[in-house]
């Protein structure tokens, strides 16, 4: 995909896109964690984890590639079937389906996204400091 804006990207616009993409990842993983213990009365209705899909955008003028989150998709992970006839959601056979959320993997996803987000914050702080130092030296 090509960036439609004719202006060359700046550090700030690049950081904004990167931070937005990481925020989408964090929100998706958080949603998955919130539904980790969800139970359903059928396999079709069971919660399935979501993931952000990213797309690279190329600025043809500068040659700089950026990334954006284009959509969220459900994974094809299968819900875990278990026998629990006392559950109010159990079907006539006493079966319920648990959401196939790996809580450890979701926490890793959150930590990795937060780390990348923080890296962008640090890059912006460094750029700001360099610009201030440049202005002061004149």
Automatic annotation (TrEMBL):
Domain Flagellar basal-body/hook protein C-terminal: 100-135
Gene Ontology BP terms: bacterial-type flagellum-dependent cell motility
Gene Ontology CC terms, in alphabetical order: bacterial-type flagellum basal body, rod
Upper classification of the organism: Bacteria, Pseudomonadati, Pseudomonadota, Alphaproteobacteria, Sphingomonadales
NADP recorded as keyword: no
Membership in a protein family: Belongs to the flagella basal body rod proteins family.
Protein name as it appears in the record: Flagellar basal-body rod protein FlgC
Subcellular compartments: Bacterial flagellum basal body
Protein species of origin: Erythrobacter longus
Superkingdom of source: Bacteria
UniProt keywords, alphabetically: Bacterial flagellum, Cell projection, Cilium, Flagellum
InterPro entries assigned to the protein according to its UniProt record, in alphabetical order: Flag_bb_rod_N, Flg_bb/hook_C_dom, FlgC
Domain Flagellar basal body rod protein N-terminal: 15-41
